[in-house]
Design brief:
Blueprint: H1 3-33, H2 45-72, H3 82-108, H4 121-145
Helix pairs in contact: 1-2, 1-3, 3-4
InterPro entries: DUF2243_membrane
Pfam family, one: DUF2243
Keywords: Membrane, Transmembrane, Transmembrane helix
Amino acid sequence: MTIEVRKKYLNVGSFLLGFGFLGALDGIIFHQLLQWHSVVLSPDRTIEIISDGIFHFAVTITMIAGAIILWLGGKPTDLSKGIRYVISGLLIGGGTFNLIEGIVNHHILQIHRVRPDAENPLLYDLAFLASGAVLLIAGLLIRKTVPKLVDGKR
């Protein structure tokens, strides 16, 4: 396998793993622990449980796919900037999840808000988007600017 193919596997695998992981955190924290919302808000609790189940299944499959692709890429430390690709990919994937989920579900489709029962639900939605932007920007900065010492190479 060429170096370019391995880099692509590291990038794609870590992106999918980060995307799925942030989705799982969203489901665990906001849907289950805090019970602020479900994927589809409905007076029928069965619909909420089914929509959350489908969501959790999808993010689990995404994490598994990311882990397999990452594994196929081989040991990140064998490549120049390999660790950088993995860390930045995780952050970029997680930030992308928050931005897509926030923009599509909270604003365009309006199927739920982060915390619909809050005094100012828009504030929670904007904070969710801001967290996605911070993760995405951090991932992009790490990919471009972290010194090579992070990768164990000079």
